[in-house]
Amino acid sequence: MLLWIAVLTSLPLLTVYLLERTRYFRFKQYARYPQLSPSLLWGHMKALDAVMGQGDRRRHIDQVFLEVDEQLNHPPLFVVDLRPVLHVICVICSHEVAEQISRSTKALPYSVPKGNSMDIFMPLMGPNSLLSADGNEWKSLRKLFNPGFAPQHLVSLLPCILDKVQRFIDILDQHAASREVVSLDKPCINLTFDVIGAVTMDEDLRAQCGPSSQSEIVTVFRQLVETFRADGGTSWDQFKVRTRLHRQRLSKQLDTILRRRVKEKHQEWQTRASTDTKKSRSVLALSLEGVEHLDPDTLDKVSDQIKTFLFAGHDTTSSMLQWAFYELSRTPHALAAVREELDQLFGPQSASSTDDIRKQLLSSRGESLLSRMSYTAAVIKETLRLHPPAGSARTIPVGTGFHVTLPDGQSLCLDGMILHNCETIIQRDERVYGPTKDAFVPERWLDRPGSKDDSSGIPVSAWRPFERGPRNCIGQELANLEARVVFACTLRRYTFTKVGLGAIRRDSEGQPVLGPFGQYEVESELFNIMEVTGKPVDRTQMRIERT
Ligand code: HEM
Description:
The chain has helices at 2-28, 45-52, 61-71, 95-102, 122-125, 135-145, 151-155, 158-178, 185-201, 216-226, 241-273, 283-288, 296-329, 332-346, 354-362, 366-371, 374-386, 423-426, 430-433, 476-490; strands spanning 77-80, 89-92, 181-183, 229-230, 392-395, 403-405, 411-413, 418-421, 494-498, 528-531, 533-536, 541-546. It is α+β, with helices and mostly antiparallel strands.
């Protein structure tokens, strides 16, 4: 009886206590930080949902954050409280603040740690991944794999990249001949998969050869990536038990295949080592150099890195290619300029001859040709500015005392939050990119003599699609090289016309309508969804014609 009385009297006290705690968490703890209006029960869930509801719900969460940034009048950062579902997220909107998170400091020599921010992607990269590792474990992995992604080494892989691009051209030729509307997503993903397979494992994954002859690595990997498709900003589908179990099964299946292949490759290279002068130059071969006995620990580590490279290295590059084809298709001056540059460098006769381009790239002047593709490089840069396929998430443990200084001098502590450098916002900052922030203007990246920061006068930290600092992208040179080769071979050979979302608007006489910044206006905006990386929602429906 006494116990009941005690319970009944303490209930109201407990309720008051919980209410006060919740009130503190929702309204006081981050009161100084810019944010949407929080609700006692839902935190920012409702407010965020309201923003989502103002557009197509399938759009990428970074696009939604961009709209929140506008509503809040462009603060340098804002917080999103989705507790208890997720930790508080701090969305970073200013390049000056992003730089404080990505740079190396005395206290955090490898920048702000990843912590558990990448846990959701564990099935795609394994527990030993370079992407999620921290501290000395990360450092030794990065040191081991850096040489495999160094520019000099990658250039030596040009013949194999060109082979894969030739297959890509054959496929686009077929699409052009059929005159049907095709989705660019599949050929681009298969191309980038083939390249990353060859570069990292010295393996022909035959992703571009159709489902019946593709390597099982491709089939399982694609199924695995699709379990992450979020057609609704933060679709809850991916958290469902059934989806998670399916994902775990596919991930295990992929692990088994990759471990088997790594063992076979190791054996093959060991046997060949004494006799063969033509050694494999793949990332895997470099990492296994000097490893005589492949113990289970090394096997796990190496296989997880291969899984990571496959994961990080194909969807991102494929998304960039699709967006570049699209932006060029609606920006006539940029298309003309890039074609002119390619004509000047490779000669007009090469416009429809990949053999010719191949010969030139593999000749002694190949490297110089690649380095002189300045307008093409500007197209790549501008595409990645407007449509960054990836972002960065870090976690800063409670009690670290990690402060950032805002542009107005105010100092804020970010302990206990997930820190998200949101490139989609940072790279469209009007203070940096001016009135053309949303337009595709490759010229902004061309040399302007006398400017200070980089050739364009834009602060270097305001362009960060590969992130910056010690944890920047290890594969950025590969992505750049691949894109240059693809563009050299395709941009004069084909004309791409968008169909459906993002199609060009025409006037009553059927002429395309040119907007203020040299781009054709469109019927409706094409946008990214989130499927691990950002990808065009309709998988880039295009009509392709031979020029
Ligand atoms: C356009 C193409 C690409 C983009 C936009 C991109 C973007 C990024 C970004 C933003 C990060 C930092 C992630 C973070 O801070 O959490 C990153 C890291 C990484 N990327 Fe890429 N990436 C691209 C291509 C590639 C390729 C081709 C590879 C090939 C293997 C690759 C492998 C990696 C790896 C392993 C890391 C982790 C590096 C580390 O933590 O040391 N990426 N990438």
